[in-house]
Design a protein that fits this description.
The chain has helices at about 1-20, 30-55, 60-80, 90-115, 120-145, 150-175, 180-205, 210-220, 225-230. The protein has about 230 residues and is mainly α. The longest helix has 30 residues, at about 30-55. It is elongated, with a radius of gyration of 35 Å.
Length: about 230
């Protein structure tokens, strides 16, 4: 959708520039100016946009707008998940909803900040998030009613257990998308420790040699002869 809008915007800008160019010429030259202006503007607009996105995100324009569409859908699903807070009636379900919302929100925030990481956790956007939202809505619906039927109680219990498994799946997704950051942080900590160790070694005073100690004793110790003459 976003990529289609981008195409429309390119065409509109190029067409507008071409129309302005035709006002500078008459007759056959106006048609040539229209075609040339349209082609040049379209190419420049495309190249400039592609370079800007490639430099900032490391993606081409088609990939970038596709990921933005996926993020838009994920945000709508996250909103559905957040609305379930008002429907749960048990403390256990509320705790589970809080955990699921926190995991989904953190993963969404990481990919929104750096869209290229979308490819590191594609299953989250294609299946895991859908499963979480659908089962959470089912669990919320069952828990909001006074369940007396044994089959409904069993279904609610199975749904809650499955959500617990999906919560672990989301935790794995989060660890995967943060794996690079954790690795970089570990390397930075190791480097910082090495620098701190070198600084401590340089700041420690060198042990005095045996000859230096004797010289210090000779300088600081008063002689009896000198004090005797003063008396």
């Amino acid at each position: 959708m976003r990529y289609s809008l981008y195409w429309f915007r390119r065409l509109a800008v190029s067409f507008g520039t071409a129309v302005l160019a035709t006002t500078l010429f008459d007759g056959f030259l106006a048609y040539g100016a229209f075609a040339a202006s349209f082609a040049v503007t379209f190419m420049l607009y495309t190249n400039f946009g592609n370079r800007r996105i490639q430099k900032k995100h490391g993606l081409n324009r088609r990939e970038y707008y596709y990921i933005l569409d996926q993020l838009k859908e994920a945000k709508a699903k996250l909103s559905r998940l957040q609305h379930l807070f008002l429907k749960v009636r048990s403390l256990r379900s509320l705790k589970q909803m809080i955990e699921l919302n926190s995991l989904v929100k953190r993963i969404y925030s990481v990919v929104k900040k750096e869209p290229k990481r979308f490819y590191e956790i594609e299953p989250f956007f294609y299946s895991h998030l859908d499963s979480v939202v659908e089962l959470a809505e089912k669990s919320s619906l069952l828990s909001s009613k006074k369940v007396k039927d044994p089959d409904m109680k069993k279904s609610l219990l199975e749904t809650t257990e499955t959500l617990g498994d999906l919560s672990q799946t989301l935790e794995a997704d989060l660890r995967q998308v943060l794996a690079r950051d954790i690795e970089h942080l570990t390397i930075e900590l190791d480097v910082a420790k090495q620098r701190a160790g070198r600084t401590n070694q340089l700041s420690e005073p060198e042990p005095a040699k045996e000859g230096d100690k004797k010289d210090e004793q000779r300088i600081t110790a008063p002689t009896g002869t000198r004090y005797g003459r003063k008396k």
